[in-house]
């Protein structure tokens, strides 16, 4: 039985993990390598690294970090942030990324997804969509959720998948940061139109939010979160046990 | 020394790193002399079967691998590398493999329930047969490993040493004497994956 995946997301700027993290046993709470190891040993099924640096120096530092993480942590790694060209795909894949997540890059250049899927395979290409309700319809937002593209989100995501994206990360701007649960309505709408893995993002506040997610929207394959894991509000080990107890297939470590 | 066959297919970074992590000396190579010298060989691979089989054949590595396998050198195929060990594949046409494992590669869509997502991607639990193969001597039944595939090993029952349930019992690993293969990615399967690589690198008793 395939298990539902739990994925911590780490934002990296200038080689350090952004957002304070405070775990016992971690000597350097903003070291991407230490955090990655911590999560991996505690049951994370996959890790997402977002490069939120804008400078070229920061970018080079990020790939150094990625290489170090990938040579010590042996679970799937997804990398996003600043992916605009095939050269960007190449740069992070060579450093040990398994999947590459595109967001604004796919909005600016509709050819990016098909070209990347052809060169690296669909399993490598993740479309990450920031979606928000505007006048009762789902709209795609760009630039980290600041700019309304005006595009209808569900059909846009479907088109990305038809063009070769092998996985969808759906980040609901409406529920993000609110910690009252994932956006089940939005997720169900996306699961209805795609047949590739869908990763829920935005809104997790407690363990029950994950069990409710997997029970209510069975088409969702994974739950992604950042701060509740970083701040230790939810331990992945406890979350996995709770999932198993609720009859949700989970990989226990 | 473990030789990782380099035939221009896929990204070998994680495989090299995971072998380094278990203290195995590994060399990425397409040099026949190095492959002959190696204690063991790993055949990696991602992408399309037809293309990969052609590259192996054009480089002359296909014949060499078959010869070395017949001489008794332990070989582990990973993902597409496992599929290449089979007699043939029906991935977009019909392609000939190395023929070291009896059976063929077919679309998982033929056997899994309609409605299940393809590829089979994610962590899935291993089931062993009545007897646990030495490749899994550090692994318990039910431990999860990471899969990404749309095709599977079919009609290979005598060689199957592990399966994973995904709307059907899919072939997860095969072995025939010194020739072994994993459909999943041990280099992406955390501690369980490293334990499987360690068993292979230490030597598998039935070889």
Outline the structure in words.
Chain A has 10 helices and 11 strands. By secondary structure, chain A is an alpha/beta fold. Chain A has one domain: TIM Barrel (Alpha-Beta Barrel), CATH 3.20.20.70. An 8-stranded parallel β-barrel of chain A has the order 1-3-4-5-6-9-10-11, surrounded by 7 helices. In chain A, helix 1 runs parallel beside helix 2 and helix 8 packs across helix 10. In chain B, a hairpin with a 5-residue loop joins strand 5 and strand 6. An 8-stranded mixed beta sheet of chain B has the order 2-1-3-4-14-13-12-9. A 4-stranded mixed beta sheet of chain B has the order 6-5-7-11. In chain B, 26% of the residues lie in helices and 31% in strands. Chain B has a single domain, classed as Rossmann fold (3-Layer(aba) Sandwich), CATH 3.40.50.880. The model of chain B has no long low-confidence stretch (mean pLDDT 94). By secondary structure, chain B is of the alpha/beta class. At the A-B interface, loops of A face helix 1, strand 8, strand 10 and helix 6 of B.
How many structurally independent domains of chain B? 1
Strand content of chain B: 25-35%
Largest sheet of chain B: 8 strands, mixed
Widest β-sheet, arrangement of strands of chain A: 1-3-4-5-6-9-10-11
Radius of gyration of chain A: 17 Å
What are the key terms here?
heterodimer; A: 253 residues; alpha/beta; TIM Barrel; eight-stranded parallel β-barrel; 10 helices; 11 strands; 35% helix; globular; B: 207 residues; Rossmann fold; eight-stranded mixed beta sheet; four-stranded mixed beta sheet; 6 helices; 26% helix
């Amino acid at each position: 039985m395939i298990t539902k995946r739990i994925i911590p997301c780490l934002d990296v700027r200038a080689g350090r993990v952004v957002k304070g993290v405070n775990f016992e046993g971690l000597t350097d709470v903003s070291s991407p390598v230490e955090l990655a190891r911590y999560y991996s040993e505690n049951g994370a099924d996959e890790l997402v690294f977002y490069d939120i640096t804008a400078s070229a120096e920061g970018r080079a530092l990020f790939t150094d970090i990625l290489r170090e993480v990938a040579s010590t942590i042996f679970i799937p790694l997804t990398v996003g942030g600043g992916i605009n060209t095939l050269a960007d795909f190449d740069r992070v894949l060579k450093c040990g990324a398994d999947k590459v997540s595109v967001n604004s890059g796919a909005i600016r250049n509709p050819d990016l997804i098909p070209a990347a899927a052809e060169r690296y395979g669909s399993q490598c290409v993740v479309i990450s969509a920031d979606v928000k309700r505007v006048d009762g319809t789902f709209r795609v937002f760009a630039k980290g959720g600041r700019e309304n593209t005006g595009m209808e989100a569900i059909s846009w995501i479907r088109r990305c998948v038809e063009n070769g994206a092998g996985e969808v990360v759906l980040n609901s701007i409406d529920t993000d940061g609110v910690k009252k649960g994932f956006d089940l309505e939005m997720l169900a709408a996306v699961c209805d139109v795609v047949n590739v893995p869908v990763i829920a993002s935005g809104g997790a506040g407690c363990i029950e939010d994950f069990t409710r997610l997997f029970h209510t929207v069975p088409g969702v394959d994974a739950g992604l979160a950042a701060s509740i894991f970083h701040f230790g509000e939810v331990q992945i080990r406890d979350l996995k046990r709770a999932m198993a107890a609720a009859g949700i297939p989970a990989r226990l470590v | 020394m473990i030789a990782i066959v380099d035939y221009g297919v896929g990204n070998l970074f994680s495989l090299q790193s995971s072998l380094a992590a278990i203290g195995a000396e590994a060399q990425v190579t397409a040099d026949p002399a190095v492959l002959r010298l190696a204690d063991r060989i790993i055949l990696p691979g991602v992408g399309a079967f037809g293309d990969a089989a052609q590259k192996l054949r054009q480089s002359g590595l296909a014949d060499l691998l078959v010869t070395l396998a017949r001489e008794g050198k332990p070989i582990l195929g990973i993902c597409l590398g496992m599929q290449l060990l089979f007699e043939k594949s029906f991935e977009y046409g019909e392609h000939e493999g190395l023929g070291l494992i009896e059976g063929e590669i077919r679309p998982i869509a033929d056997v899994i329930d309609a409605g299940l997502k393809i590829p089979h991607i994610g962590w899935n639990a291993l089931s062993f047969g009545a007897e646990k193969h030495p490749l899994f001597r550090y692994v318990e039944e039910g431990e999860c490993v990471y899969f990404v595939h749309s095709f599977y090993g079919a009609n290979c029952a005598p060689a199957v040493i592990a399966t994973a349930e995904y709307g059907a019992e899919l072939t997860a690993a095969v072995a025939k004497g010194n020739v072994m293969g994993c459909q999943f990615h041990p280099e992406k399967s955390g501690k369980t994956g490293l334990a499987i690589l360690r068993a292979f690198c230490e030597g598998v008793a039935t070889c």
